[in-house]
Amino acid sequence: MPNPFRGFGAVFYKEVLHVRRDPGTLFFSLVIPLLQMFVLGFGIDTNVRQVNTVVYNADGRQESRELIDRLKNSDTFHVVRYVQNDHDLNDMIIGGKARVGIKIPVDYSDRLIHKMSAQVLVLIDGSDSSVAGQAINVTTAIGLDESLRRAVTDSTAPFAVDMRPKLLFNPDSRSPNFFLPGLTAILLLNVTTFLTAFAIVREKERGTLEQLFVTPVRPFGLLLGKLLPYFFIGFFELCNILFFMRFVFRVPIHGNVFLLAFLSLPYIFVSLSLGMLISSKANTQGQAMQLAFLTILPSIFFSGYIFPRETMPAFFYGISFLVPASYFINITRGIILRGAGLQHLWLDGLALFAMGTFLLVIAARRFSNKIIMT
Amino acid sequence: MADPAQSSPQYAISAENLVRRFGEFTAVNDISFRVEKGEIFGFLGPNGSGKTTIIKMLTGLLPLTEGNAWVEGLDVRKDAEGVRERIGYMSQKFSLYDDLTVLENLRFYGRIYGLSAERMKRRIDEIVQLNGLAPYLNRLAAQLSGGWKQRLALGCAMLHEPKLLFLDEPTAGIDPVARRQLWDLLFELSGQGITFFVTTHYMDEAERCSHVAYIYYGKLIADGTPAELKLLPDVQPAGTDRIEIVTPQVTRALRLARHIPGIRSATIFGESIHALVEEHFNLADLRAQLQKDGITVTDIHPLTASLEDVFVELTYKHQALLEASRA
Ligand SMILES: Nc1ncnc2c1ncn2[C@@H]1O[C@H](COP(=O)(O)OP(=O)(O)OP(=O)(O)O)[C@@H](O)[C@H]1O
Ligand SMILES: [Mg+2]
Q1: What ipTM did this prediction achieve?
Q2: Of chain A's two ends, which shows fewer C-beta atoms within 10 Å, N or C?
Q3: For ligand 1, is residue B47 a contact (CB within 6 Å)?
Q4: CB atoms B104 and A22 under 8 Å
Q5: CATH architecture of structural domain B237-304
Q6: Is A62 exposed, middle or buried (0-12, 13-18, 19+ CB in 10 A)?
Q7: How many angstroms is it from B80 CA to the middle of ligand 2?
Q8: What is the pLDDT of residues A215-261, one digit of tens each?
Q9: Which architecture characterizes domain B11-225 according to CATH?
């Protein structure tokens, strides 16, 4: 029975030697992302539509339903679920399934009928500052409009509907707090994908891969042996980024930093596998560079890093599910800003792991007949 | 179907009607040959004639477009992995790791082939001794000179004790002394029963092979021992002799010689001209005629064909055939 991982140890050891012999490349690949972090760490604001919203209508009568319809018609809110208690309302937001939670109190209709002012609680996930700003503006406007409408028909009515926005997770609404967790995903992807893609393409260029292919090394042995050193490097880089984020940009980490480190492992794995796949296609470092950019662009635009995913047109929203960074951004923002736990994020971790395995298997298949066409 | 004669263990390589096309272009055109165990099989041909392509086909780096090949008794199409266990390959371009030391390169290949620690140590000692690498063990491969790089590459290729080694232009770009030393090494290894498949552009190296094949733009046009090839009718047609004219004015002499009746063909070889002449051609008359036209003739004498003569003759003949087929 041939060992499918044949050559793994040899390749791993050799790759470590390469890295040690060339500390310059390693240094730059670790420092450049940190520089990018400083350059890109500050925000871009965008117009927001169709924000995922969860509604807890404790009242449920005519007046309350009208209010919900008005919110829905504003185009800013997209009601994904109606819940029946405060716990579910909070959980939807912490888990990242909704950005905005609206709670209509049980006495809402009564108070309006008795010409008293009724308060509506609007919980807003402040970790995304563009969503938060928009949500505050629109709910307040609707509250005002609703009150005015009642004032027109009955001048004795008080200020009727009082929207009470409450910003969660990022109370001071600082943009680094919002952008840096997302940026972490992009930077990490950059380093790891480039490093691994180059590690193999360089061997193609020098002809050493051809020499290696004439030995009994197996594709998985080759790929995993190459992957593992960069896995450690990627993880080290993640720790660097988190360190700078926490202590230089002063972004508080609300959740468990060890959970974040743990869930970054499958993401690093995906990025490395992607680099492997690129290297199976590219024959020169130039081509590898182009292909790597091609994978990094969708990670920037469709991952929710710049534009919130749920506000994208359906087609791009669909694409966002194929972008690994989407899942990892959900993980970083979830843990750093919302204090989310494993119970909210395990599915994202699993999705990343599955994607990584899938990509690696495809890459190994592309190397499996060990044929060089250059 | 594997013909038992093809895969018979007496052949290190047996190639049958190999064809390799790259798109429209046929790089290897219906080539068959056999390499016996223990031979030094020299493979010659002009640049771009398909030598490297054939090696890649035999080592499983390139799929065969058509044909069959057995290497060390294994079908290359079906068991490339088994072939790879049994062969060593040294590519045309230096392809070891520049940023690893000599020892690290050797150890890397030892690990890839899964040598036990004991065997690895024994083999590395043997190879270092045989190839004289001892003074360079801790030097980066990048810092070795051409000849030492080739010795290291050969060392890495034979670490796992393959019975068959493919060497693609092992002596290209190294100095004459290093070249000779490398060949001495090949002979020593060949004496131990290792088969070599070697490509080269050097005629003196070809002369030292036990068997040579000549490929001309994808076609195999000669295949035999050096002695056999020199007696080929195309090289030495019945009723002809080969002569050498030594003169400082080779180009002008060549132009004249080609118009002298009785001279069938003539080619420049450095400081002299090799010509194929009719039997009983009078050398004294030729000398007189050339001198009359102002050529200083240092020497004229009969000559036995060299391999270079063989390849030149065969190339002319095939060029003519190619042109005829195009016309
Ligand atoms: N992957 C490829 N795609 C297209 N054409 C190729 C490919 N590999 C080789 N060729 C062509 O096949 C022909 C034979 O090339 P090959 O490298 O085998 O020649 P060679 O005899 O080794 O020459 P040299 O003495 O220069 O090493 C050349 O014309 C080359 O351009
Ligand atoms: Mg070649």
Answers
A1: 0.81
A2: N
A3: yes
A4: no
A5: 2-Layer Sandwich (3.30)
A6: exposed
A7: 21
A8: 989 889 999 999 999 999 999 999 999 998 888 888 888 899 999 99
A9: 3-Layer(aba) Sandwich (3.40)
